[in-house]
């Protein structure tokens, strides 16, 4: 009945009509009218994009979509929806760029708020010295690529990034926002000075570490549970112009992780970005190496000589930024650093690119995948945070579980430092807190439709489940946690958060979204009437 009701909407529904609609929906017989006037709340029936995300695994259709032009409209919507006399079932999900994997920005039979319709405002505040920070005020639906383009015009840029920039500010701040700079500056949520938020009850609140700090930290990494971010104040710094981007290959996992840890600890003042990936086969180099293509003709035959038995390699990817105050050339810095590293001799390659090209590198991969019809496909991704003590065991588990020949897409592995994360924020890292180094492992698989049927996609999802179940087994003791988590039962969520953080999450939910209206696609809480 609810699914059918969406077809009764026309393009725009007035505020009054919406009230009638909610009243009717909450009435016992659920008889739906179709009132149609223009009004302040433009709820649209065009719900196609709102039921789609990058994962292409879940396709939950909302009743309607709001394309707000101001935070006040979002507030009005949430005030209406939270007024329990009007509706007992309506939920609301903010949708950034819809780059979630498991329907996290969807709202089955609810209302999706498409954040890209908020006027994209980017206001840059340049430091005048004297301990004053440079920062930017940016609206929640803006994409990081837009922010980069604008700040670069002033010679500035945010400090902490994601690998891909066509994600929104509000979307990544609701998770954490991690990449190869995280070891140095923390995740994106550690680089925010202030947020404008509309809570689940429709209150418009400006919060920061000193103003409504509980809401501020609740929202950062809060999976959209406590409020909709309409604006964020983000730290920026002087942007480099050039980047030396280096790849070094290993045939030994221990040496690979030891060097990664060396880079992010004792060499942290020299290096600006550290990631790494498993090289399962030739394809796993080719798929992520467009910038390195001149080197590929020599790398591939060296790593995979014809007729040799399959071998797995590991690749550290690091980058050094060119700042005007650096005394040595980029080449000198790389040479000095590589002397202390243990990669396979002579298996190190580098390219020099602009800072913009480097940060926007995944776009080049996207265009290539789109050309081959491999972008708009299902993505059974799994991202995990693994404590240093469990990373070797986790790598073995992963390689035992997945079939290396069928694997299409990168497997990222790189370390971050726990002390760059604020434990007041909602984001979850594994362990009781004693291990400083934590690895992020991203299994970024694509289900290539020419080779992967529905059964094959289900097999991939089963493999992911096997991995998540094994790591939560206390006897095996890997103690990993999912990043961009996806669970379906409250028990699993409790286990994910751990006792203390679960209690805090429930308290914060009760305070900021007591009827569990927000972000139903996360499947943590059920809507209350
Ligand atoms: P959506 O998918 O639209 O939303 C995600 C969640 O946040 C939903 O629950 C939604 O309701 C909520 N939400 C959205 N906007 C707001 C808002 N304004 N206020 C409150 N809640 C909101 N992540 C990384 O950390 N590092 C990476 O390097 C990285 N690379 C990626 C590469 C690709 C190709 C893709 C597809 C994803 C990548 N991600 C990465 C994951 C990405 O950060 C998350 O999926 C993020 O949620 C996507 O942002 P979005 O704007 O698309 O959010």
TrEMBL record:
Cofactor: FAD
InterPro entries named among the record's database cross-references: Cytok_DH_C_sf, Cytokinin_DH_FAD/cytokin-bd, FAD-bd_PCMH, FAD-bd_PCMH-like_sf, FAD-bd_PCMH_sub1, FAD-bd_PCMH_sub2, FAD-linked_Oxase-like_C, FAD-linked_Oxidoreductases_BP
Signal sequence interval, chain numbering: 1-31
Enzyme class, broadest EC rank: oxidoreductase
SUPFAM superfamilies linked to this entry: FAD-binding/transporter-associated domain-like, FAD-linked oxidases, C-terminal domain
One Pfam family named in its UniProt record: FAD_binding_4
Domain FAD-binding PCMH-type, chain residue ranges per copy: 58-239
Keyword field: FAD, Flavoprotein, Oxidoreductase, Signal
EC number: 1.5.99.12
One Gene Ontology molecular-function label: FAD binding
Family indicated by similarity: Belongs to the oxygen-dependent FAD-linked oxidoreductase family.
PANTHER family tied to this protein: CYTOKININ DEHYDROGENASE 3, GULONOLACTONE OXIDASE
Protein's name in the database: cytokinin dehydrogenase
Organism: Stephania cephalantha
